[in-house]
User: What shape does this take?
Amino acid sequence: MTNADSPLLHLEDLTVAYGPLVALDGISARVAPGAVGLLGPNGAGKTTLLRTLLGFVRPRSGRVSVLGLDPAQDPLAVRRRLGYMPEADAYIAGLHASGFVAYAGELAGLDPSEATSRAHEVLDYVGLGEARYRAVEGFSTGMRQRVKLAQALVHDPDLLLLDEPTSGLDPAGRDEMLDLLQDIAARLSVHLVLSTHLLPDVERVCDSVLVVDEGRVKAQGPLAELVTQRRSAYDVSVRGDIGAFLTDLHDEGGEGRDHDGVLRVVLPEGWGPERLFTLAKSSGALVRSLRPAVETLEDVFLRAVEK
Amino acid sequence: MPIHNQGYRRRGAVPAVSGFRAAPIARLAFKQIVMRRLLIVLLALSFAPMLLEAPLLYGYIRYPEVVATVLWPLPQLFGAGVIVQAFFAALVTVWAGTSLVADDFCTGALLVYLARPLTRLDYVAGKLGVLVVLNLVVTALPMLLMWVLAVGLAPQDLRARGLAFVPLAIGALSLLTSFGLALLALAAGAVTRNGTVGSALLVGMLVFFEAGARLAPSGARLPLQILSAARHVVSVEHALFGGPGDPPLIHWSAALLCLGLILGGAGTLLWRRLKAVEVV
Assistant: This one.
């Protein structure tokens, strides 16, 4: 376990490259214990970061620490305390769910009898108790996601690395998976790193976020702190030269983007809504309606990756 | 109402990994192999040549002058026997070996292994170890039993007939054959990610290079001989047991070097495919 003062993850000027391709470019971050959302568009470096945390990839430069341990120096010590749920299918051909999860426990160091009993407990926990003797090959997507979670949990890790855990799930399955993750983080006090591009999943499960894009950290911190950083936003309906209006708004330090058919506009610092009318007029546009909006995590995320 | 069991409690501590880390991998690989019923038939069949070799051996011991005029010297019988057994080991490896790694690539299980406190070497050792031991059972065990029979029939001949060194030679040749076949099978499985295709690739390469080494025009024969693992094993067999017939074209030391290069290439390929799973 980590104590409250020591970070869950500590990245110091971390650079990871595959030959000439730089996947993580000198990133630094200090992530507090708890559930952290790792956000970023495809190709941002999320999976590379997860694999660096697992000790699969050695940094070209900089330092990384997970639960106070250096995965580049001692990957096995780190992996003892980690559970990893990969994004893609992961099962062993010919094994039923219980055999697979027990085997995963044995690989992590549990003796065979304890691994078997833990496998039953964990499968019950993730809601697969009834299906424990069925071959994993025959499972639905939702069941496969849950058996992947079970194999990651079986040895009782201190930190779970979850790569797109709700990928491919229907709404009900996604809801159940998020319930599970919330319970794991809150009741069981297992730290989570949730890598996803689904912002509502992060809002529901995580305490903090780390936004990466193009191999760099774009935003980080507690979710609550990011929420308080949200600026005044308005949903605006505009007629006329919308392009010129957006360009002028951007030049003044504001932002605007399409949001469900209206413009979600973030005002420049110190502006009131009345100045928006003036700006629209000077840009050859007309504001037809304007109402206050609450900036979502998606807005915060988009703003971060557009920086 | 949450679907999960809210009575679940944590274990309280992460387990310590002690002992031979590849042991669970080897255990499962063994189970996966013996679950294939045809393999049991193959294993039983691999002992069938003994039914022919045992009367031959009896003839060697009881009527040495008569037999010597029509057959090879006694130690060479063991060398030829190992080569026959190697054929069965190849069948076992093709049947059960390539899928050991290919299935893990195909089902994504490799990440389950590699995200544990295990190294790639542990993974390879677990899979390779089981296959090597199984191949040794097929190649070395029958011939060692034959040696025990020979010594039992004529203990006084142990030194006079050159039988004393035979167990060592059987062990060395069997180990070389078993290890080589197992490594080639795992590499073929890793490259193709499909057990059946991997087996076809392995058989195709062994047969192609061996047939080419024998049948190709003399100008093209040498490169094919260099790539024929089977040729090199026969060269080493000749060196160890003084094999019958024409001496091999490649000296045993060169054969060992070529085998080293072939197996080194296979090992590198396997290693890089495993590494790629961690990175990509």
